[in-house]
Amino acid sequence: MPRNPPATEGLRFRIVLKPGFALGPGKADLLEAIDATASLTAATERHGMSYKRGWTLIQEMNAGFGEPVVETRKGGSGGGGHASLTPLGRLVLDRYRRMESDAAAAVSAGVADLRKHMKTAPAAAAQKNPGRKRRSAK
Fold first, then answer.
1. Which of 52, 57, 81, 92 is the most buried (most CB within 10 A)?
2. Which CATH number do you get for residue 50?
3. Collapsing DSSP states into helix, strand and coil, what is residue 54?
4. Are 85 and 31 in contact (CB under 8 A)?
5. What is the pLDDT of residues 75-86, one digit of tens each?
6. What pTM does this model have?
7. What sections of the chain are H helices per DSSP?
8. Within a domain: 45
9. What does the angle CA 21 – CA 22 – CA 24 come to, to the nearest 5 degrees?
10. Predicted confidence (pLDDT) per residue in 50-63, tens digit
11. What are the b/e assignments for 55-72, b being 16+ CB within 10 Å?
12. Which of 33, 13, 15, 40 is nearest to 104 (CA)?
């Protein structure tokens, strides 16, 4: 499955739960992918991140909350480990997604209003290349 492109418009919801610890779309997407695939390797591949980065995020979340949010088991000699959300991991993911949805709904009217005042794409392109002349058609 292709990586979910980062949001280029709209709200990117990230909350700082304590100094040095934030929960945002990257961690939530990783938890969701672990829940769907039961594999840290598959989850990180799904989001185009290295296994090491995914493992670091899981360790950070497991250390930041009162108990682990993800449990992992090593595979045999050929690999094939297993990862799953704990009940707390499910609660964290579900609560984050509800908060994210609530925040998007709360700001949607304001975002729509601000977008009305944005330059249109052709004008933005002309701004980037003000000295470029168009060729006339022959």
1. 92
2. 1.10.10.10
3. helix
4. yes
5. 656 666 799 999
6. 0.74
7. 25-37, 40-46, 51-64, 87-115, 121-128
8. yes
9. 155
10. 999 999 999 999 99
11. bebbeebbebbeebbbeb
12. 13
> Domain count of the chain?
1
Res 32: pLDDT: 97
Q: 77: which 2 tokens?
A: 């000699």
Neighbours of 131 (CB within 10 A): 4
Q: Note whether residue 86 is domain-resident.
A: yes
Domain-located, residue 119: no
Answer yes or no: is pLDDT of 38 > 60: yes
Q: Are 34 and 83 in contact (CB under 8 A)?
A: yes
Query: 102 lies in a domain?
Result: yes
Residues 6+ apart with CB under 8 A from 67: 86, 88
Average pLDDT over residues 119-125: 66
Q: Tell me which residue of 19, 7, 5 sits closest to 104, measured CA to CA.
A: 7
> Within a 10 A sphere around the Cβ of 96, how many other Cβ atoms?
20
Determine contact, residues 58/43, Cβ cutoff 8 Å: no
Amino acid at 32: E
Give the domain extent around 85: 24-106
